[in-house]
Design a protein that fits this description.
alpha+beta, 9-stranded antiparallel beta sheet, 5 helices, 9 strands, 21% helix, 33% strand, elongated
């Protein structure tokens, strides 16, 4: 459910918490510029990860109830950027990305698994198709990608005192003093958290011999990290706004935000 939103609300610059913590690593490879022994192409491994949290004021309808909604009950999809395939599966058009001198538009198919017992949901990448020039589209059979976004609710500060995150005690950095502003009528403040990891393995074209595998991994991982740095805070902000509308019974909930 939350994932749908994630897909829904993802990428645009948003109000990120100061302690949202990006971490990316290009996992540099020692592969030489020449093809691997046996004629196999070089493989570049790109990776990025992002943790974020956002304080939420809990209303009469609880955050736990909201985070347990089926994905189909989230009314926050931007129809220009997201297509709903079925109740739990979505196609997400990320928009144009620049990688070296190429323009690439990834189209992601995502699944949303609601996990009420764990206090949230998990969004997973089912497939990724690249759109762009003939060269870019030729890469579709030369790479593989995996992504998971674990979305949970918790009491603010739970990661500091060992308290629970949602129903499962997940810990993570990202709480801060401003979370206390989320308290409602003296009740403890709550947070929504997102832990996202993204990995890509890409076959390096033979004509790219002038580029080291390490350079490709560094630049590629940087591009992925920039995407997550924009997507995660925006996703959390939009979840916060949609929860407030849902909890107040606002019937105008509709497509909001842009990917």
């Amino acid at each position: 459910a939350t994932v749908a939103q994630a897909a829904t609300r993802p990428p645009t610059q948003a109000h990120a918490h100061q302690d949202d913590q990006p971490s990316s690593s290009g996992a540099p490879s020692d592969a030489p510029l020449a093809a691997k022994p046996g004629g196999g192409a070089r493989v570049a491994k790109l990776s990025a990860s992002k943790f974020g949290s956002r304080a939420v004021t809990q209303l009469e309808k609880t955050l736990a109830a909201y985070m347990s909604l089926p994905a189909s009950q989230y009314s926050v999809l931007d129809a220009r950027k997201i297509e709903r395939i079925d109740a739990d599966t979505f196609r997400c058009f990320v928009g144009e990305l620049r990688f070296l001198q190429w323009s690439i538009e990834p189209v992601l198919t995502l699944s949303v698994t609601v996990e009420p017992q764990d206090g949230g949901c998990t969004i997973k990448l089912l497939s990724c198709q690249l759109r762009g020039s003939p060269f870019v589209e030729d890469l579709n059979d030369k790479f593989s990608a995996s992504m998971a976004n674990v979305v949970r609710w918790r009491l603010a500060g739970a990661e500091k005192d060992g308290g629970p995150a949602g129903a499962n005690g997940i810990e993570g950095g990202g709480g801060n003093g401003s979370a206390q502003a989320g308290a409602h009528n003296g009740a403890p403040a709550h947070e929504i958290t997102s832990t996202t990891s993204l990995e890509v393995e890409l076959e390096v074209p033979a004509w790219c011999g002038f580029l080291s595998t390490q350079s490709i991994e560094r630049v590629g991982s940087g591009v992925l990290q920039n995407v997550l740095n924009a997507m995660v805070p925006s996703f959390l902000r939009q979840l916060q706004n949609d929860y407030a509308k849902w909890a107040s019974g606002d019937g105008s909930r509709g497509a909001v935000g842009e990917l």
